[in-house]
Write a structure and sequence with these properties.
Structural class: alpha+beta
CATH class of one domain: Alpha Beta
Radius of gyration: 21 Å
Largest sheet: 7 strands, mixed
Helix content: 25-40%
CATH superfamily of one domain: ATPase, nucleotide binding domain
Distance between the termini: 57 Å
Strand order of the largest sheet: 18-19-17-16-22-23-24
Number of helices: 15
Number of strands: 24
C-alpha cells in the first residue's frame, strides 16, 4: 500500500517521519520553530509558523520517498491552544503553549470556589494552568478575539488537520480532547457544565473522532500529494504509549522529551481520580475499543538540557550532556530541581521555581550537567511511586523513548533509582511511530493490536547495579531539594 507518514508536531519543532509496512523507519525531516516568551511564565507559539514548518518537513521528506504515501498520522504537543478564523484560516491569537502559567491565579480561584471535584470527576485532570480550558478562557476574556461562529478552537492536531484538508475537517481525537478540561472522559463527549464553567461556546469546538480511522484527506499545496487519508491522531504521550505497544493494562512507558511523561495503561474502564496523577484517554479505535491511562506529567527534563546549552552556554549541543555528565562519577551533593514553570506530578505546584542546591567551590560544569541528568531520574521515580501506590501494581519494568533515551547514563541511573529493568526499543521515536501505527491500523495495513505488538523490538535493557540503600539515600537528598524549590 505504501509508506506511512507521521507528523510529530512537538513543543520545539516538527518531525515528519516515514514508516514502512514492516514498521521500519524510511526517513525523516525535522525543523525547529520559534519560542516566544512575552512575559515571565508566558510561553507562546506562532501557529502560522508551525504550519509552515509542517509543510516544509512534509515536502522535504516526500521528495526523498520512492513509494506512494498510504496515510498520514499526527501526534502533537497537547493542551496548547490554537484559535483561528474559519473564513480565512488565519490564527486570531498566538498559540498559548502547555508550559504557559498565566492562568495560575484563575486556577486557584476555581479551586477556592469548590470546582475541583467537578473537574476531577469529569475530566480526570486537576485545576492547573497546564490544561487548555483556562488558556482558552483567558483569550476569550482578553477581548483579543470575537468568539463568533467563525472562531475555531483546537489543539495543534486540529490546526494541522484543518490546514491539510483545506478547512474541510475541524476534528480532534479523544486523547487530545481529554487534555482540554472540557471533555467528559466517561461520557466521551464535550461537557456542557465545563463549557459553562469556562465560558467556552460549543460552536468553537472540533468534532471528536476515534484516534484511528480516516478523518479527512489532503488537498494540493500542503507538502504531499492530494487525496492522502489522514487516518490517525493522538496526543504525543498517548502516541508514545501506543508506539511502545503498551496494549496490556499495567504496561508503563516514559518519554524523555521537553518534559517527561510516565503513562500506565489501565484498561478500558475509567479509574477513579488519583491524588497527584492524571487520568487520561489513551486512545480509541474504530471498532469502539478504548484504553485509559494514568499519567504523571513532568514539565521540564529535556528543556533543562536546552537551558544548559542556550541559557548558560555550558554545552554547545544537546548531545554533549551525556559525555560531560559521565566525566564525573558523582554530582557530589548537587541537586537541580528544574521547576522553571512550576512542578507537575505528583506535586502540582505552579509556584515552585527552579533551584540548585549543594553548590561548593569545587562544583564545576560536569557536576551541574550530572545533576540535570539525575533530576530526570528522580522526577520519574516521584511519578512511578505515586502511580504504584494508586494502581496497587508493583513496578516491574519501564519502557523508555524520546530524545534523551539515547543516553546510556540516564537509563542506567533510572534503573538504579527504580530498581527495575529499563527497556529501550530499537526505534526510539515511538511518539511518531505510534501516530504511524494508528494511521496504518486505520487504513488496514495492520489488522490488529497483536500485529502491532509484534513490531516492538528491544535495543538494550538496563538493569539496576546500585544498591537500593544507596539509591534511596540519593533520592532522599532530592526530596529535600524539592522542599526548597517549593518554599
Amino acid at each position: 500500500m505504501g509508506v506511512l507518514i507521521a507528523i510529530d508536531a512537538g513543543t520545539t519543532g516538527v518531525r515528519a517521519f516515514a514508516i514502512g509496512e514492516d514498521g521500519a523507519p524510511k526517513g525523516w525531516s525535522y525543523r525547529e520553530f520559534t519560542q516566544h516568551f512575552p512575559q515571565p511564565g508566558w510561553v507562546e507559539h506562532d501557529a502560522d509558523e508551525i504550519w509552515q514548518v509542517v509543510q516544509q518537513t512534509l515536502a522535504e521528506l516526500s521528495s526523498r520517498l520512492h513509494e506512494p504515501i498510504a496515510a498520514i498520522g499526527i501526534t502533537n504537543q497537547r493542551e496548547t491552544v490554537v484559535v483561528w478564523d474559519r473564513r480565512t484560516s488565519r490564527p486570531l491569537h498566538r498559540a498559548i503553549v502547555w508550559q504557559d502559567r498565566r492562568t495560575a491565579e484563575r486556577c486557584d480561584g476555581l479551586r477556592d470556589a469548590g470546582h475541583l471535584d467537578l473537574v476531577r470527576a469529569k475530566t480526570g485532570l486537576v485545576l492547573d494552568p497546564y490544561f487548555s480550558a483556562t488558556k482558552l478562557e483567558w483569550i476569550l476574556a482578553s477581548g483579543a478575539i470575537d468568539a463568533t461562529a467563525d472562531a475555531a478552537f483546537g489543539t495543534v492536531d486540529s490546526w494541522i488537520v484543518w490546514n491539510l484538508t483545506g478547512g474541510a475537517a475541524h476534528v480532534t481525537d479523544p486523547s487530545n480532547a481529554s487534555r482540554t478540561m472540557l471533555f467528559d472522559i466517561g461520557a466521551f463527549g464535550w461537557d456542557d457544565d465545563l463549557l459553562e464553567l469556562f465560558s467556552v461556546p460549543r460552536s468553537m469546538l472540533p468534532t471528536v473522532l476515534p484516534s484511528s480511522g480516516t478523518m479527512g484527506t489532503t488537498v494540493t499545496g500542503v507538502g504531499v500529494p492530494a487525496g492522502i487519508p489522514i487516518a490517525g491522531i493522538a496526543g504525543d504521550q498517548q502516541a508514545a504509549l501506543f508506539g511502545q505497544a503498551c496494549f496490556t493494562p499495567g504496561m508503563t512507558k516514559n518519554t524523555y522529551g521537553t518534559g517527561s511523561f510516565v503513562l500506565m495503561n489501565v484498561g478500558p474502564e475509567v479509574p477513579p481520580p488519583v491524588e497527584g496523577l492524571l487520568t487520561t484517554v489513551a486512545w480509541s479505535l474504530a471498532d469502539g475499543g478504548r484504553a485509559y491511562a494514568l499519567e504523571g506529567a513532568i514539565f521540564v527534563t529535556g528543556a533543562a538540557i536546552q537551558w544548559l546549552r542556550d541559557g548558560l552556554g555550558i554545552i554547545d549541543a544537546a548531545a554533549d550532556i551525556g559525555p560531560l555528565a559521565e566525566s564525573c562519577p558523582d554530582a557530589e551533593g548537587v541537586y537541580f530541581v528544574p521547576a522553571f514553570t512550576g512542578l507537575g506530578s505528583p506535586y502540582w505546584d505552579p509556584y515552585a521555581r527552579g533551584t540548585i542546591v549543594g553548590l561548593t567551590r569545587g562544583t564545576g560544569r560536569a557536576h551541574l550537567a550530572r545533576a540535570v541528568v539525575e533530576a530526570m531520574t528522580y522526577q520519574t521515580r516521584d511519578v512511578v511511586e505515586a502511580m504504584e501506590s494508586a494502581s496497587g501494581r508493583s513496578r516491574v519494568a519501564l519502557r523508555v523513548d524520546g530524545g534523551a533515551a539515547v543516553m546510556d547514563l540516564l537509563l542506567q541511573l533510572q534503573a538504579d533509582q527504580l530498581q527495575v529493568p529499563v527497556a529501550r526499543p530499537t526505534i526510539a521515536e515511538t511518539t511518531a511511530l505510534g501516530a504511524g501505527y494508528l494511521a496504518g491500523l486505520g487504513v488496514g495495513i495492520w489488522g490488529s493490536l497483536d500485529d502491532l505488538a509484534a513490531q516492538w523490538h528491544l535495543d538494550r535493557e538496563f538493569v539496576p547495579v546500585a544498591r537500593p540503600a544507596a539509591a534511596d539515600q540519593r533520592y532522599a537528598g532530592w526530596k529535600r531539594a524539592v522542599d526548597r524549590a517549593r518554599a
